[in-house]
Backbone:
């Protein structure tokens, strides 16, 4: 097979990216000229390393309560908490909304890797454990034996670190051929900010615009003449790579404590995170919108690039730090002057 453009859309463990990063693998010399930019940079977020399995409930299942049966709705989000409360046996079944009212409801079970559910040794043990943890759910009716069997054998998945590689393309010196990366091959992170698919689509849209010689952000025709394939690929990397770098920062700090991770450091982190978001929301309100709210609050607004979100957040952080230091300095000076007068 001969092609002028290879698009590496092969996911987080991308062979295409690994091949570009590996200086020793045999390939054309131009492919290894700047191999370092394809090395992955990774940061552990509080959500990295969590394990997830899915248990399927029927559509519109019911939850008994004091006033009768609550019939669940497909487009409503639910979190059903267990009666267990200890760090390694507490569990929350998370249900995301689905459009189709007849669709089965996937309940996400997300825990630390040393949680009790990973030690269950048979489908029956799973059934017994969950029945005890959720006594109000009629699990014997909601979940078939086949589903317990599937659930038990499923390996689940582990949330990755927040990671990306700065390199997104490499071009032949002739300018007529190249290799380009999109999606998880470039960036991956835990699903807390719900931007994984969007970010991949963003790459594809940007690449399409670059190949058509249009502005990557506004989609307007540009003055620049991107006559060669390599010009388009370089433009794609120039604009998109800083955007991905900002996205990874958003993934690290956006909303990493939403799984109610049980460790003490998680609980402290969750309180600090909440305090930070509340402070930014209050400042946004009292400044009549002059100061931005927390970046995660604006991440669904398509008017903002990830870079803009993080730049605004950084400016606010700098302002808050400056205010804090000025206040601390004033307090300190006040105390010194008072002591001077008294002494
Ligand atoms: C637990 C979890 C929950 C998530 N939840 C969300 C969410 O709610 N919302 C959201 O937007 N994102 C979510 N994401 C992220 C989202 O799944 C990814 O961002 C998205 O799937 C990336 O798409 P992709 O096409 O780049 O890579 P992938 O979906 O990984 O697709 C890569 C494809 O390439 C194929 N492939 C790999 N190697 C080769 C090879 N050598 N030859 C041929 N084919 C190959 C693979 O089989 C695969 O089909 C979640 C991720 C995880 C782990």
Residues:
């Amino acid at each position: 097979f001969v092609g002028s453009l290879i698009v590496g859309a092969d996911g987080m463990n991308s062979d295409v990216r690994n091949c570009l990063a590996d200086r020793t693998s045999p390939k054309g010399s131009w492919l290894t000229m700047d191999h370092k930019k394809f090395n992955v940079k990774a940061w552990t977020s509080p959500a990295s390393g969590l394990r997830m399995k899915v248990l399927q409930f029927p559509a519109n299942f019911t939850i008994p309560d004091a006033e009768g049966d609550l019939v669940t709705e497909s487009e409503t989000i639910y979190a059903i908490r267990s009666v267990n409360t200890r760090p390694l046996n507490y569990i929350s079944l998370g249900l995301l909304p689905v459009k189709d009212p007849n669709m089965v409801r996937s309940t996400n079970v997300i825990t630390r890797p040393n949680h009790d559910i990973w030690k269950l040794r048979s489908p029956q043990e799973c059934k017994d454990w969950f029945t005890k943890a959720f006594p109000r759910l009629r699990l014997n009716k909601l979940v078939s034996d086949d589903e317990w069997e599937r659930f038990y054998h499923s390996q689940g998945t582990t949330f990755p670190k927040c990671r990306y590689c700065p390199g997104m393309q490499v071009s032949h010196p002739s300018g007529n051929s190249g290799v380009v990366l999109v999606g998880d091959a470039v960036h991956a992170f835990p699903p807390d900010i719900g931007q994984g698919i969007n970010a991949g689509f963003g790459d594809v849209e940007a690449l399409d615009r670059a190949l058509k010689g249009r502005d990557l952000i506004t989609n307007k025709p540009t003055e620049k003449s991107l006559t060669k394939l390599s010009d388009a690929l370089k433009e794609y990397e120039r604009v998109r790579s800083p955007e991905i770098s900002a996205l990874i920062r958003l993934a690290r700090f956006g909303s990493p404590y939403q799984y109610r991770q049980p460790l003490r450091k998680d609980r402290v982190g969750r309180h600090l995170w909440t305090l930070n978001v509340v402070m930014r929301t209050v400042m946004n309100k009292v400044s009549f919108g002059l100061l931005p709210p927390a970046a995660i609050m604006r991440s669904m607004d398509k008017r903002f690039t990830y870079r803009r979100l993080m730049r605004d957040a950084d400016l606010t952080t700098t302002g808050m730090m400056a205010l804090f230091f000025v206040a601390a300095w004033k307090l300190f000076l006040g105390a010194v002057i008072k002591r001077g007068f008294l002494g």
The first helix runs from residue 15 to 21.
